[in-house]
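Weekly puzzle thread! Below is a chain. First person to post its structure in token form gets bragging rights.
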Amino acid sequence: MPDVLKAVLPVVVAAVAVAVFGPILGSIIGAVLAVGTSMLLDAIFPVPKPNLNFTAQDRKQMVRQPVAPRRIIYGAAKVGGTLVYVGSSGADQRYLHLVAELACHPCHAIDSVFVNDVEITAAQIGGNGMVTAGPMAGRVRVKRYLGTQTTADADLIAESPDGWSADHKLLGRTYIYVRLEYSREAFAAGLQNVAALVRGKNDILDPRGATSVGYTTNWALCVLDYLRSPMGVGAIADEIDTATFIAAANLSDELVDLDAGGTTTQARYTCDMAITRDQSRRQILGQMLTAGAGALTYVQGRYCLYGGAYTQPTASLGVSDLAGDVRLTTKGRRKDLFNAVKGTFIDPVKSWQPAEFPGVTSGTFETEDGERIWRELELPATIDATRAQRLARIELLRGREPMMIEAPIRYAGIRFAVWQMLSVTVPAFGWTNKPMRILGWRFEPNTGAIALRLREESAAAYAWVHDDASALGAAPDTTLISPVAIPTPTSLAVAATTALQADGAVAPALVVTWTAAAHAFVTASEVQWRVSAGPGAWSAAQVPAGTTRFVIAPVRVGEQLDVRVRALAGLAPSAWTSTVQQAGAADTTAPGAPTSPTGTGVQRGASWRWTNDTASDLDLVEVWEAATQNGSYAKVGESRSDFWVSTGWTPGETRWALMRSRDRSGNYSGWAGPISATARLSAVDDIAPNSITRVLSSAASLALNRMDRPGAGYDHRQVVHRTITLAGDGRALILVRTTGVTFNGPADYSGDGGGDRGD
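Winning reply:
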């Protein structure tokens, strides 16, 4: 008999049922055998219903207080530790030492440690405990102890400022030792919390094997362990109905299809939860039982466990068994009516916070009731949304079978037990072998009858196909973005290039590009690099948000560097990208050729123009000319602009040109062109000062200068000029139009030799 009953009820208990899956069955249904005594245990031990949001939040918070409840972990759970030691050491007290107990028993594994909600996985922890990757790399040391340790942590003993000694072994306790190095960057908002993802008890007995013990999430085996454990109920072996626990364990291990082909499955019932021992045993059992849609009974001095499944009747109940009138209830009270179930479970995807699973509804039931009526269901030991929906569906369908009877049975009914399935035949009700489950059993001493309370049950209430599941919404519980969950930049790439130095020289360099983290709180990106060999110390630079390119220069040709990038925000940085390695290399990439080349004739030459390539290390453009398109080209100039003026041509001369780009490393582009241009036919520059000797109406005598062309080549039909005196020396600028074009108007002249004036 449980200690709680022995202490309070000085009576002989015949049958007690603890059936705490949902409000349908109630919390405790008791049948107490005693003369003149009939009561519900809830009246003696009222238990307030815990709020899942608060309890789930509490167990993930690190606490420090002189008296704290011990914690038991079944399956997987994220828990905050109870601080048993805090100290600081090192220059300027730069190191903070924390020891946090996670469970009061040995555990199977500590998969991750969370510092300020930043996850540190087992793969990120080196052999000496130092974190080697992620935002906490080089700043945090983590030591994990699973309760099997026999000595105290040597590093903490060596660095403890106030006496953590070899005697501080924490034997049999699962704990973590975390050393944090002060960093404004890593802990911009201080230290808020340290937690861990733990796989719990690893010494759970499986009665299906002679000596099988280990870690399991099997719902029935976790309940059995709590019943037998001295940290739980402390029941002895004779108080356990092993057969019912084996049946429940087999039921829990059954695989449920999650898709049409059955390629993806999951165990029917699991238990994943952290328990604090300041709760009552019945409250803890109530939370555990929600994970299996089941019931725990205490019958004739033995605990029996039943999972959420339909079972065939094991006995019959007919009119001949009745000791009086049967009381029939066909429909429950309005306040107990519901046709839809929603609620919360613990969601690992949302940092192990309580989250809503997709509600289970029925249009048929809503039509019957005229409206949708919700029932809330809290599942503190369930961490899978599909499994939560299956449990909610069982709750809904069992709730739609409200028909119940209370029947007085002859004394032979003492053979029946709570939770047993019976085939009930009552012709007056039109029942023949109707399946009903015993929910209550009570002895009536005045009449010697057994009062049974039964409820109808069908296999349909437990049926499940994969189509019954709804996808869990991807939307977070809040529309506000997290200021500390900063996404990591993506698409990091590093390529060899060159960079122009301040002195005009070109040096080997690495160009780093990435895709920025999409987050409103990101203020900058940090680029780090180091020599791979060694490795060397990290160098770092920051670029403002929106910039996704950075050049590391100068670097050594052939020397390989490690490069990584992360996003920076006000409260926390993102994780680092994976490291990319790249060596510096000499520049062998040619610039692009000039584009859109053109040639325009000018006086005694041509102007060549083009559009330069956009290469950052472009040095100049070479211009080559030839007398013919397919002739021999020779370089005539170099331009660091986008044009070149070629001179020294004779009027009317045509030449061809090619252009090519050259970068600062001496790499050449291909050729642009050929293109051609013809010098203009203009005599302005061919007339020497003081060369006009006579101006008539039809001819001019010219002294030629810098022009290898006979004077007769100029056919001056009419000459028009305008006299401009320069510096008072009497020189005249003569504008001459040739090739027979007539100009009307007077012709003026001046010169050293005088001259005539013509009409």
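Puzzle host: Confirmed. Bonus trivia for everyone else. The two ends are 145 Å apart (CA to CA).
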